[in-house]
Amino acid sequence: MPSRLKLDLSPTQQQELESLRDHSARPYLRERAAALLKIAAGQSGLATARQGLLRARRPETVYTWVKRYRAQGVAGLTVQPGRGRKPAFSPSPSRRRQRA
After folding, report:
1. pTM of model > 0.70
2. Shortest CA distance to 62 belongs to which of 39, 96, 85?
3. Which of 14, 21, 69, 91 has the fewest CB atoms lying closer than 10 Å?
């Protein structure tokens, strides 16, 4: 049986995550901070992913958030540059020069 996912937080880290959960302008950061706080409180990663958030997530997603938080702190919770959908169409450089 795999060991239960644990996250031990110092009082400073706890306060930092609570502040992020309650006051961040980015909804995805609020969600990730809430998930980490629930895991730190003893809830399993599976229960947090399936029922503990506003929207159900894959357990692997929540586990990734924990791993990134352990490695990088709060900075690991942000969306990394280069992620997301790329433009479907980009005008050629010669067409851009003609417009300018």
Report:
1. yes
2. 39
3. 91
* Angstrom distance (rounded) from CA 43 to CA 98: 59
Distance CA 68, CA 60 (A): 12
CA distance 32 to 62: 8
**Tokens encoding 76:** 């690991």
Neighbour count for residue 18 (Cβ, 10 Å): 14
User: Would you say residue 42 has pLDDT above 80?
Assistant: yes
Q: Are 65 and 35 in contact, with CB atoms under 8 Å apart?
A: yes
For residues 89 and 40, give the distance between their C-alpha atoms in angstroms, rounded to a whole number: 44
